[in-house]
Each structure stands twice: as structure tokens, then as C-alpha cells.
Specification:
Layout lengths: L1 H25 L9 H14 L10 H13 L4 H14 L2 H5 L1 H4 L1 H13 L1 H7 L6 H15 L3 H12 L4 H20 L13 H20 L14 H8 L11 H27 L2 H19 L9 H18 L7 H25 L6 H28 L2 H27 L17 E2 L2 H13 L8 E5 L4 H6 L5 E5 L10 E5 L10 E12 L6 H10 L4 E11 L4 H6 L1
Parallel strand pairs: 2-3, 2-4
Antiparallel strand pairs: 1-5, 4-6, 5-6
Helix pairs in contact: 1-4, 1-7, 2-3, 3-4, 3-12, 4-8, 4-9, 7-16, 8-19, 9-10, 9-11, 10-12, 11-15, 14-15, 14-16, 15-16, 17-18, 17-19, 18-19
């Protein structure tokens, strides 16, 4: 009985990590409105679900899966984001597929880290991110090595249909494997057993791959035209080499520091150790994250969202470093625990001081005191580690330091995931797609609903005309309206019930309407941030913004006071 429980414990922990990952990705998933990037792809899925003509893009897997959801259920923000979130939760199973090479317990720890890591959580909640391509490509590789041909073929097909991220990952992993083989002189990284029947193995992969392309690529036969997007990701990927730089270069390495500084620090230590001891897996992971970082920095269309190809090997190096250095002796357990508590307290103090330091209203003389407090706290931490190391031994100091850092980092990762991914009530500005504005649709939605509620007696749905402001996010908001027309300018003879324009346009028919300006989106001004603003962003996620207003015009006879006067 005991052996059975010990055998099942890793599986319980693995599915516990999956449940946590799923919760972090699904809670409040539909609260935030879809921006232009997300809405442009969600509208393709909506067209597939409604069996309408549309121009389909590079995310054929998402469009096919979500199109079926929209066909069976109502189209909403939650359902629109569901498949990216669900695919992101499946990431926790990737380390388990490679457990024979990386170790069972390191694989479980890595799965738990990936469940709460902010870049993995945040990008799982964004339509159009590289998350689906990232997860399904890694699942395909893991299932291939585990000799699960049907699942491997299906995962590969889904990865291929998940946008340009598939080709970015394929290139990074291909270059990594090539460089590793040159260094290792052809020595294989994984001992892959040969399948009993190779012909049957590859036949199953091919049939599963083709069937998935056909079924999911056509949106379960709701939208056969969606098959055109199978290789659209490759086209977008190649076009990216000729595209202008879409993000400030510093934002990519800055995203590594802002979201995964723990992986960066301990991953670097793990890389150094791997090179010194000539650890094959560690060297492969080092090449992987270096190749990924260099490529994303040089690739003109590279964005901070692509750092997941860098952080995964860094997280694995971090986990391996922890397991190598974390040795807790029985006789020094109390001292190690006290050292752990001390490290946590010092870091909490440093965080409070740093939060006070970035307060813009803080007086200059007090700012100097805060800086001295930061320096003093850091010196105290280093001195304590050295004293314990020389007073007792490194077997006490190093595990205590690592345990304290592990507690601090886990709490920090969880806090970042909650604060930076839409789980918290307040909105935040993130680096994944820095030029993407944030949409504020609640006021327009409530205004339209109020006008329609006032005019439901015998008149039916109101006709809506949008003049000079054709945005995917607005089309998504108005997706369920019976009569919506987007025009370049309002025709003077037209008399729509509702007219939506930019705040720069006053239509000729405005005399018979009443208008109200609303904020539609806010554009971040990253280039105008000072060094102090950047430090403040690390904790508050606030940036200076510029607002884009729209005006909603309501025909006068539809207003309540006009109806009462009649």
C-alpha cells in the first residue's frame, strides 16, 4: 500500500499543478475587453462559427477550435480566450514527458513553476500570443520521445496551425540542436529507443497529423476556407525579417528582468556549472536560451512575448541548480530554518523600502534615507550569509539562503501572476505587446444597452453606424447587434439611431443628435518614461498614456425626455 501511494504521489502533484495552472489562467478570463490584436483573430473564429465569409489568418488551430465553441455556445470574451488559456495550462505536462532525462522531482518542481510563472500565465490569457504554438510543439516533441504517435501527430498539427510562433520555436530548437551536436561531436542528448515497428509508428503520426489538419483546420467543417491558414504562419514569420522593429530593443531583455529575474540569476549559475562539469543537458539548455535570446533580439518582428522560448530553459536550469545546491543536513535543520526566515524578513524589508523609494511625492532628504536603508539591508543580508557560512558551514548557509530565496521568489511569482495578468481588479500595463492599446468598452456598451432598453417598444433593434473609426475591438463589441454598418463618413441623408465617430469628427447630421464623448482606448507612451518611471513600473505597472476618445451620437427622438414629451 505504501509503495502504491509513493508511486501515485508524483501524479497527484502533477495534476495539482495542472489544476493551479488552469485556475490562474481561467479566473476573470473574460473580464477585460478584447484589444485590436485579440479581436482581429477572435472575429475570424466568429466568422467560422457563424459560417460567414472571412479572410482567415495564421491562427488556424485557434480559429477552428474557437469557431466550434462559438457555433455551439454564445460568443463572449471568456470563450474567445479559452483555448489559449487551456493550452497554457497543458504546459505543466511538458516536463513530465522528459522526466527520464531531467529527473522526476525536478520535472515536478518545474511543472509547478510553469504553473505560476507570470510570463507563462500572462501570455496564456492573450489571443494571438505564441503560447499555443509553444505548448503544442513541446508536447509533440515529448510525445514523440515517449512513442505516442497519435498524440504526437495531433500536437504537431495544432502547433503548425498556431501562428508564426511555431516557426520561431522550430528555428530556435533547430539551431540549438545543430550547435549542440557540433560541440558534443554528434553525441545524442536523449537516448531514444527505436519503435518496434517504424513503418506503423510513422504511419500513425502521419494519419493523426493529417486528420487534425483536416478537422481542426476546417473548423470541424464549418469553415473550409480556414485551411488556407495552415502555412500562413510561415508567411508571417518570413515577412517578419523585412518588418520594421516592432518593439524597443531594450524591452525584450528588460522583460526578462521584470518578470523572471529569478530564472535569469539562477539560470546563469546553472549554465556556468553545466559548462564547468560538462553536463550535457545543462550545456544544451544554455545553448537554447542564448540562441533564443540572440534571435529574438535580432529578429525585427521579435517581441517581449517571445521570451518564453528563453525562460523555459532558464527555469529548468534554475530547478537543476536548486536541486544540486539544496542539501539539508539533519543536525543543522533548526539553524537552516532560522536562516530561511531571516532571508524572507530581509527581502520583505527591502521590498517595502523600495516601494517607498519610488513614491513620487517623497521628499528629497527622505529619499536619501530610503537609499541608505536599501544599501544597509543588502549589506546585512550578505553579512549574515557569510557569518553563518564561516560560523557553522556552507551546508547551513547555502540551503538556508536558497530556501529563503525560494519562498521569496514563489511569493513574488504568484504576486506578479495575479497583478499582471488581469486577475487583480486593477488593470496593468505589460511588455508583451507594448504598442497595443488597452480598450475601455464598458461605457460604450452600457450606453448602447441603455438606449436599446429605452426603445424596445415596437421598434425592434436600433441601427448603428460607425463613421471613420473601424477597429477590430469595436467590431467585436458590436458583434451581436442586428444592424451595424462601418463607413468612412456619415451620409447627410442617413438617420441611424446611433452614430459613433471619433472626437475629431462632427457629422453634418449632428443637429438632430445628442453626443457624448467616451474614452475608447489608452495608448502607452513607453518612450517618454524616465528612469524613475521605469523603476515605478516594476511595482505598480503604471505608464504614461494618451487617450483616444470617441463620440456616441443618439438621435434626439430616441432620448427618454423626447419620448415623454410626445
Amino acid at each position: 500500500m505504501k509503495n502504491s501511494q509513493e508511486t501515485d504521489l508524483p501524479l497527484y502533484l502533477l495534476f495539482g499543478a495542472f489544476a493551479l495552472a488552469l485556475a490562474l489562467r481561467l479566473i476573470r478570463l473574460g473580464v477585460l475587453p478584447l484589444g485590436d490584436l485579440e479581436a482581429s483573430i477572435a472575429l475570424q473564429a466568429l466568422a467560422a462559427g457563424r459560417q460567414e465569409q472571412a479572410t482567415f489568418g495564421a491562427f488556424a488551430a485557434y480559429v477552428g477550435l474557437t469557431g466550434l465553441d462559438f457555433y455551439l455556445f454564445s460568443a463572449g470574451n471568456f470563450m474567445a480566450r479559452f483555448w489559449f488559456a487551456f493550452a497554457g495550462a497543458l504546459l505543466v505536462f511538458v516536463p513530465w514527458l522528459f522526466r527520464e532525462r531531467i529527473g522526476r522531482w525536478p520535472a515536478l518542481l518545474l511543472a509547478m513553476v510553469l504553473a505560476i510563472s507570470p510570463e507563462m500565465v500572462g501570455l496564456s490569457r492573450i489571443i494571438g500570443s505564441p503560447m499555443m504554438a509553444f505548448v503544442f510543439l513541446l508536447l509533440a516533441l515529448g510525445l514523440f520521445f515517449k512513442q505516442r504517435p497519435i498524440l504526437a501527430g495531433g500536437s504537431l498539427a495544432l502547433a503548425l496551425m498556431s501562428g508564426p510562433g511555431f516557426w520561431i520555436g522550430l528555428l530556435i530548437l533547430g539551431l540549438t540542436t545543430l550547435i549542440y551536436r557540433l560541440i558534443a561531436k554528434g553525441e545524442p542528448l536523449l537516448d531514444q529507443p527505436e519503435p518496434a515497428d517504424q513503418r506503423d509508428f510513422w504511419l500513425r503520426i502521419g494519419l493523426s497529423f493529417g486528420a487534425t489538419l483536416l478537422v481542426v483546420g476546417t473548423g470541424f467543417f464549418l469553415a473550409p476556407a480556414n485551411l488556407s491558414g495552415i502555412f500562413a504562419g510561415l508567411v508571417v514569420f518570413l515577412q517578419g525579417f523585412a518588418a520594421p522593429r516592432s518593439a524597443l530593443v531594450f524591452q525584450i531583455p528588460f522583460a526578462l528582468v521584470a518578470y523572471t529575474v529569478e530564472a535569469l540569476l539562477f539560470g546563469l549559475l546553472g549554465s556556468i556549472r553545466a559548462i564547468l562539469v560538462r553536463d550535457r543537458l545543462g550545456i544544451f539548455l544554455t545553448i537554447w536560451w542564448l540562441v533564443g535570446l540572440v534571435f529574438i533580439l535580432l529578429y525585427p518582428a521579435g517581441a517581449a512575448a517571445d521570451i518564453i522560448w528563453v525562460t523555459l530553459p532558464l527555469w529548468l536550469l534554475t530547478v537543476r541548480t536548486m536541486f544540486f545546491a539544496w542539501r539539508l543536513t539533519e543536525e543543522n535543520r533548526i539553524i537552516t530554518v532560522l536562516m530561511t526566515v531571516f532571508v524572507v524578513v530581509i527581502f520583505a524589508f527591502l521590498l517595502l523600502v523600495f516601494r517607498g523609494l519610488i513614491n513620487p511625492t517623497l521628499a528629497q532628504d527622505l529619499r536619501i534615507n530610503y537609499i541608505l536603508a536599501l544599501i544597509g539591508g543588502s549589506v546585512l543580508l550578505v553579512a549574515a550569509v557569510l557569518l553563518v557560512s564561516y560560523g557553522w558551514s556552507q551546508e547551513v548557509a547555502l540551503p538556508g539562503l536558497l530556501m529563503g530565496l525560494a519562498v521569496v521568489f514563489v511569493v513574488g511569482l504568484f504576486a506578479l501572476s495575479v497583478h499582471s495578468t488581469g486577475l487583480a481588479p486593477e488593470r496593468s500595463w505589460e511588455l508583451w505587446y507594448p504598442q497595443e492599446p488597452q480598450v475601455t468598452s464598458v461605457w460604450l456598451r452600457e450606453t448602447i444597452d441603455d438606449i436599446e432598453d429605452w426603445n424596445t417598444s415596437g421598434r425592434g433593434a436600433l441601427d448603428i453606424v460607425v463613421s471613420g473609426f473601424d477597429r477590430p475591438s469595436l467590431r467585436w463589441l458590436l458583434r451581436d447587434e442586428a444592424s451595424v454598418e462601418f463607413v468612412s463618413s456619415a451620409v447627410p441623408q442617413s438617420q441611424p439611431g446611433l452614430l459613433i465617430t471619433t472626437d475629431q469628427e462632427i457629422p453634418e447630421i449632428a443637429n438632430s443628435y445628442r453626443g457624448q464623448d467616451l474614452v475608447w482606448y489608452q495608448q502607452p507612451l513607453w518612450s517618454e518614461m524616465s528612469a524613475f518611471d521605469t523603476l515605478g513600473w516594476l511595482l505598480t505597472r503604471n505608464v504614461p498614456t494618451a487617450a483616444q476618445n470617441i463620440i456616441i451620437w443618439v438621435r434626439t427622438d430616441l432620448m427618454p425626455d423626447a419620448q415623454f414629451s410626445q
